Amino acid sequence: MLPIKPILNSKKSFLLIAGPCSAENKKQLFETAQLLTKTSQIDMFRCGIWKPRSSPDSFEGIGKKALPWLKEIETNYKIPVCIEIATAKHLELAIKAGIQHFWLGARTSVNPFSVQEIASASQGLENISIMIKNPVSPDLRLWYGNFERFAKAGIQKMAAIYRGFATGKIQLYRNDPAWKFLIEFKRVYKEIPVYCDPSHIAGKRKYLYEIAQKSLLLDVDGLMIEVHPTPNKALSDKEQQLSLSGLDKLLNKLIIPSKNDVNTDNNTLKKYREHLDIIDNELFHLLAKRFDIIKEIALYKKENKIAVLQIHRWDEVRNNILQTATQLNMDVSLVEMILSLLHETSIQYQEQIIRKLSSEPLT
Ligand code: PEP
Ligand code: MN
Question: Does domain 263-357 fall into CATH 3.30.300.30?
Fold first, then answer.
C-alpha cells in the first residue's frame, strides 16, 4: 500500500476537473475559467501549456507565459489549477509561479527516465499533487512504477487518470478504453483515486457521454473533461472539447453513483451475492469436469492419431448451444464469445497434452 493523501482538501467523493486542452491566450483562458466557475460545479481547472503533439507543426502550447495567468485564475476564481508537466524544468518553472497541482501525460508516463527525472525534482515538495495518466500502451506495471517513483520521492497527494490506450487501429474511439485495465488498476492500488478522462478516450464530443457514464459505473472517483468557449476553433483537440453548455448538459445527464459503502449491512445485495456465489461454484465444478473429459479425449486422439480440431463437431456444438441460448433469451453474441473461449482453451489443452506425451528434444 502506498501512503496516499487526497489531492485536494475537499470532502467531496467525486471530483470534476475541467478546462481547455490548451491555454491559447489570456482571453480564452479567463473566459473559460469564468464560465466554468459560474455554472458547473468544478473542483479543479485544467489546461495544457506545454503540449506533447505528434507533429512539430501543430500548436505546441503557449508555454511559461501562461503561468502567471493561471495563478491569477486560481486567486480570482478561487479554483485550484492543474497543468501537464513533462520535464523537471516544467516543474521548476511552475513551482516558481506558485502552481502546485500537476499531471503527467500519457506520452510522459510511458518513459521511466522522464518520470524519474520529474519525481527526483519533486523531492521535498510535499504540498504538490501529481496525477498520472496511464501510459499510451496498456503496460500496467509501467504505470504502477510511476506511482512508486513519486512515493519514494515523498509525494503523497497522488491520483491516477485513465485515458485509454493507442492501438494503431481504426476504431470508434480515439483511444481504446479497454476497461479491464481500469478494473485491474483499481484492484491492485485500491488506495489511489482514479479519475477518467473521457475526452481523450472518446476523441469526439458525441461519444463523451457513453464513456463518462461507463467510467462512473465502474466507480471512478472523478472526471477530467476538456472544455473550450468555442471548441470548433480550438488550437488542439477541437473535435473532443465540449462547449460550456455542452458540459452542463453532460453533467445533468450523468448518473453519479453514491460512494456509500454498499458492501456492509446491505441484506438485499448480500442475498443476491450468496446466490451468485453458489452458481459460480457450480459453474466452475462443471468446468473442471469438462476439462477432465477433454483430457480423456486428448489421450484417445493421441493413441488413434486423430487431429485435435474436428471442424464438423465444432460446428455442431456451436449450433446446438446457440440454439439453446436463443431459447433461453440470452445475448447470442455474448454466448458466442464464451463458447469460442471455451473451444480455444480446450484445443490448447488437448494440444498440450498430446505434445507433452510425445515430446523429445529436437536435435
Ligand atoms: C491532455 O490532457 O491534453 C493530453 C495531452 O492528454 P494525454 O496525455 O492523455 O494524451
Ligand atoms: Mn487534449
Answer: no
* pTM of the predicted structure, to 2 decimals: 0.90
- DSSP code at position 122: H
Listed by start position, the domains of the chain span 15-259, 263-357
Q: Say whether 231 sits in a helix, a strand or coil.
A: helix
48 lines ligand 1 (CB under 6 A): yes
For residue 46 and ligand 1, the question of a CB distance below 6 A is answered with no
The H or E element containing residue 269 is: helix 267-303
Nearest to 298 by CA among 350, 236, 226: 350
The 10s digit of each residue's pLDDT in 191-201 is: 999 999 999 99
Ligand 2 centroid from CA 200, angstroms: 6
For residue range 261-296, what is the model confidence (pLDDT) as tens digits?
777 778 899 999 999 999 999 999 999 999 999 999
CA dist 301 and 323 (Å) reads 28
Does domain 15-259 fall into CATH 3.20.20.70?
yes
